[in-house]
Amino acid sequence: MARGNLSIHLAERPTGEIIPGTTFTAKTSPAPSPSDLKDGQILVEVLYLSLDPTLRAQLNDRRSYVPPVQIGAVMNGASVSRVLATRSKQVSEGDYVYAATGWTEYAILEEGKFEPSSQYPGLRQPQDMLSALGITGVTAWYGMTQIGDPKPGETVVVSGAAGATGSVAGQIAKLKGARVVGIAGSDDKCRWLTEELGFDAAVNYKAADFKQKFKEATPNYIDVYFDNVGGDILDMCLIRAKEFARFVECGVISQYNSADPKGIKAIGQLVTMRIKMQGFIIFDHREHFPRARAEISKWLEEGKLKKNETILQGGLRAAEQGLVDLYRGINTGKLMVEVKNPNETPSKL
Ligand SMILES: NC(=O)c1ccc[n+]([C@@H]2O[C@H](COP(=O)([O-])OP(=O)(O)OC[C@H]3O[C@@H](n4cnc5c(N)ncnc54)[C@H](OP(=O)(O)O)[C@@H]3O)[C@@H](O)[C@H]2O)c1
């Protein structure tokens, strides 16, 4: 009997938070087989599925940098997979690839739609292709070095600081000689930032005295703000901005689940403090990936950069609740779901 291929599909568009059991529906169809492959295609099994804040935004029927997920379609998602069969010369059986497979256990991919692990220097384990060497790592590198561009002694503030992007962005700012202040959602995360990652200060935005503590942590105001969250924290950072500050607009996770997103109140600060605020989407900057990955890999090797992964067990079915929990801060470092452990025998299809 043919092996089943579990996939998770969008059932209905949420207006606020994702509702487990309602927003998505699971389906099982026959898994693809090597005989289905055409020239240039590969057959893969997903090992780790990346859970990313932007996935919630892709459920809205709105113009964005990617088309919205359609009702009934397989949920969007990137993963690291193992090649089970290949009719492409770019990879061999058993290689790892990064691709936008969606929420599925098996997929057929064509050349140009996957990245072989050879593009990830210093790769130690497949999950690194989703974490420090993956999209969030290069996003941190690009936003911090090409937009924020901190100088030695400047004050850099990073929100979402204990997450995949923020934790790398803050450490890169430290490597550039800046004084780095992280904002995160628990005392444990703040301790991790200062004690393990070398941030100069970290402030818990859920604590009652957050605003006062943040003021104390930024006595010389802010030169670079790496924004992962938007909302009230962005307004607070605008108010603490120094003249000619650079605001790197990477993401606004505090607004992704909101049916009525908040605007910026302190917009006047852009003028009075002559702030440069720049948003970016990392996929516009692929030409920087080789250099970003090479530098990140070297820093990891030298112990100058640390990373963490929060890996959810339970297979593909754990993705739905995992995505809900991402917005509740379940993760320290990169959040992903283990769909299949790479140490297990490859599937025979
Ligand atoms: N521009 C680009 O090309 C690009 C590429 C990748 C990612 N991004 C953006 O970068 C940001 C971080 O993404 P990531 O993948 O690295 O995720 P992540 O930071 O690993 O995970 C998200 C974190 O956000 C925090 N959070 C959740 N709700 C929040 C809220 N209401 N206010 C403040 N913090 C909140 C949680 O930590 P706490 O416990 O601290 O709340 C959670 O752990 C997101 O905004 C994402 O959209 C942008």
TrEMBL record:
One of its GO terms (molecular function) is oxidoreductase activity, acting on the CH-CH group of donors, NAD or NADP as acceptor. CDD domains: PGDH. Pathway: Mycotoxin biosynthesis. The keyword Transcription regulation does not apply. Keywords: Oxidoreductase. Pfam families: ADH_N_2 (PF16884), ADH_zinc_N (PF00107). InterPro entries: ADH-like_C, ADH_N_2, ER, GroES-like_sf, MDR_fam, NAD(P)-bd_dom_sf. Residues 21-337 form the Enoyl reductase (ER) domain. PANTHER family: ALCOHOL DEHYDROGENASE, ZINC-CONTAINING (AFU_ORTHOLOGUE AFUA_7G04530), PROSTAGLANDIN REDUCTASE. This is Dehydrogenase FUB6. It comes from Hapsidospora chrysogenum (strain ATCC 11550 / CBS 779.69 / DSM 880 / IAM 14645 / JCM 23072 / IMI 49137). The lineage of its organism: Eukaryota, Fungi, Dikarya, Ascomycota, Pezizomycotina.
